[in-house]
Amino acid sequence: MYSIRNLPVHRYLWLAGLILALCFAVVETRVAQAATFTVNSTVDAPDTDPNDGLCATSAGTCTLRAAIQQANATTAADTINLPAGTYAITIPPGSGDDAASGDLDILYPLTLIGAGPGATIIDAGGLDRIFEIYETGGNVTLNGLTIRNGYSAEDGGGIYNLSPGTLRLENVAITGNTTEVEGGGVHTVYGRLIISGGSVISGNTGRSGGGVYNAGELSPLGIPSRVEISNATIADNVADSGGGIYNTHEGSLTLTDVTISGNTSEDYGGGVANAGRTSLTIVRGTFTGNHAAGDGGGLFSASERPLTISDSIFTQNSAGDGDGGEGGALYTDGSGTVSVTRSTFDDNHASGEGGGVTFSSFGAVLFTESTVSNNTAETGGGINNAGATVNFSRLTIFGNRATHDGGGILNQGS
């Protein structure tokens, strides 16, 4: 019988190498295995050893920051449970861009589960933004929490998302966040952003997209970013353009059962601005009480791709601050097609033209099976038609008023 000491030297070396390789394989399997961390402290403190698989600060507690650092140590899709409490970000941004200070950096797939937006609150206190999701982030889910009082001089006051994967915001509140540039609440560059489950994006401020900004950039696979919002509210956000949402470049935006209310812009698109090679679909949307100092109090769209609106309500939106301002509820321009069906435009106002709607598109427009009522403007109280190819069909138009021409319809196009 052979023992190891009886083996020839070259076979001994081969066996030793095999054992070493197996050891590395075991270590790699452990490292890659998904983990679940449960936070037990609201203090903002880093992990003592982010690579040991144990969420522990110098005080022996598991903080939100420490849990994220541990999750960042492997590429596995980890889970963090975040109980009720207010988790303040108190460590100022450091010289490095890492998870140990300032905003919370997410490097790899992660699910973060709170106890509900009224119970689990992450508050940056204006110190930094709250989350930055890196290009390597993959699929990230934030569920049942509030993200508030983030600030960034760069993009994304609350969340800045660079992942080409899917970011899901389920039953979250994003409120009181500010950026000096784009995306006060959320700025997404690549991938797919899904906002659902009764989420509320409110009281955020940015230059463009006070609530949400979709940059519409192409992923490494050439796929433009997509934003899908359902069963959610976008309210009381402020921006220079796109008070509630700004969709641009080649972005795709879909709104289903969404309320857009009380948003304000200093230029165009009080509720939503859609501009570029973008597409926008709205199903059962409610636009109410939004205001733009320029055009499109509820919605401004100047796109090369389709705008489709169905079964939606636009009420009490306004455009213009006493001088100019077109399309109290809706303003369209660009070469993209426009389809508006089974929708209501009631009690909207424009200081200039088109109290309810202004069509300035040079793409084909179909406006059908809808009601335009009780809107007011200087001219074109209900509708200002300045489009190239516009088809009106089965419309109900009543109670609209204009100071000058066209109480119901002002036709300046075809």
Q: How are the elements arranged and paired?
A:
Layout: H1 9-32, E1 36-38, H2 64-72, E2 78-81, E3 85-88, E4 104-106, E5 110-113, E6 120-123, E7 131-133, E8 140-143, E9 146-148, E10 151-152, E11 159-161, E12 166-170, E13 173-175, E14 178-179, E15 186-188, E16 192-196, E17 200-202, E18 205-208, E19 212-214, E20 226-235, E21 238-241, E22 245-249, E23 252-261, E24 264-265, E25 272-276, E26 279-283, E27 286-288, E28 291-292, E29 299-303, E30 307-310, E31 313-315, E32 318-319, E33 330-333, E34 338-341, E35 344-346, E36 349-353, E37 357-359, E38 364-368, E39 371-373, E40 376-379, E41 383-385, E42 389-393, E43 396-398, E44 401-402, E45 409-411
Question: Would you write up a description of this structure?
Answer:
It is a single chain. The chain has 414 residues and is mainly β. The protein contains two helices and 45 strands. The strands form four sheets. The protein has a 23-stranded parallel β-sheet that branches. Strands 4-7-11-15-19-22-25-29-33-37-41-45 form a twelve-stranded parallel β-sheet. An eight-stranded parallel β-sheet has the order 18-21-24-28-32-36-40-44, with no helix packed on it. Helix 2 links the parallel strand 1 and strand 2. The radius of gyration is 26 Å and the shape is elongated.
